[in-house]
Amino acid sequence: MAKKPTKPKAKARTARKANGKARASRKAAGKASAAQIADQSGLVLRDVCRGYGEEWEREEVLTDLSLDILPGQLTAVVGPSGCGKSTLVNLVAGFDHPDSGQILIDGKPVTKPGKDRMVVFQESALIPWQTAYQNVVFGPKLRGDMSPDQIKAEADKLFETVGLVEFKDKYPIQLSGGMQRRAELARAMINQPKLMIMDEPFRGLDAMSRELMQEFFLRIFEESRRTQLFVTSEIEEAIFLADRLVILSNKPAHVRAIIDIELDRPREFHMLSSTKAYEYKRAAMEILHEEALRNFKSSGTQSDFVEAFSARNE
Question: Which of 6, 36, 124, 186 is deepest in the core (most CB within 10 A)?
């Protein structure tokens, strides 16, 4: 007789469940004093809510979202399309403000953009009329918090790190997509941020360039151990890069689960073929499928897709 398949052993901690446990856990978390939260290092989000629109047609995007981004770790965030990942990025970066809740970095409230949090966006944000070098040194020169000699020394070091020494005098239009991404990484890192916020930075690259950038980015992270919040729509990318995988629910989004990724470092692509990686991927996909089905049902689209998927899993 064939053995009944076992469920994945991924260490997933469900942050909210339909049976009401989530509400109780949020109340318990809320008992922590402001002083206790302020003492935590890294990035802390507590009961963050954000919605848009007038009261009579308001759309809630995030609700009671609580999350700790641990120092020195790479935390990847995935979730259904349109669930509010970009809203989360904007709030953490200080481009937007929550309706309620707290966002702190090393105990200090996030109220505006700052050099302690640098964002690498989905689309290239290099200044087109500046060379790669001018783009990288733009921030420190504008702020005036580094001497010209310090700026040059740090920029030269970073161009060596990202492999663009021969291209530092090129304009963005003269660089490939992968080179532009490396220049943007250097531009962010020269500010020595406490937190790097990566908003699907490799999304527009072809498959080969994407894999090369993943390996390149991973090497930089494993050398520096700078805290990273990495938003992606690719499960395998998240598993390959991350120490922790955060799965968001449908909108209004909350943290549905957190999976600790216990693959050895330094990481190599062949690890994605391991049993552990398969278990992590299966656990994440099961949760995302549940959210997809819930979205179909809540929107009233009781389509053949829902029936077929439900029948397949009976």
Answer: 186
Range of the domain at 42: 30-66+79-110+236-314
Rounded CA-CA distance 178/181 in Å is 5
Which three-class secondary structure state does DSSP give residue 312? helix
The b-or-e profile of 255-270 (16+ CB within 10 A means b, else e) is bbbbbebebeeebeee
2-58 pLDDT, tens digit per residue, is: 444 444 444 444 443 433 444 444 444 444 455 555 556 789 999 999 999 888 888
- Is residue 193 domain-resident? no
SS3 255: strand
Q: Are 196 and 115 in contact (CB under 8 A)?
A: no
In a domain, 148, yes or no: no
| CATH number for the domain that contains residue 274 | 3.40.50
Closest residue by Cα to residue 263 from 248, 244, 282, 247 = 244
Rg, Å, the chain Cα set:
21
Nearest residue to 267 via CA among 256, 258, 276, 255: 276
Q: What is the pLDDT of residues 126-160, one digit of tens each?
A: 999 999 999 999 999 998 889 999 999 999 999 99
Helix (H, G, I), strand (E, B) or coil at 253: strand
pTM of the complete model: 0.82
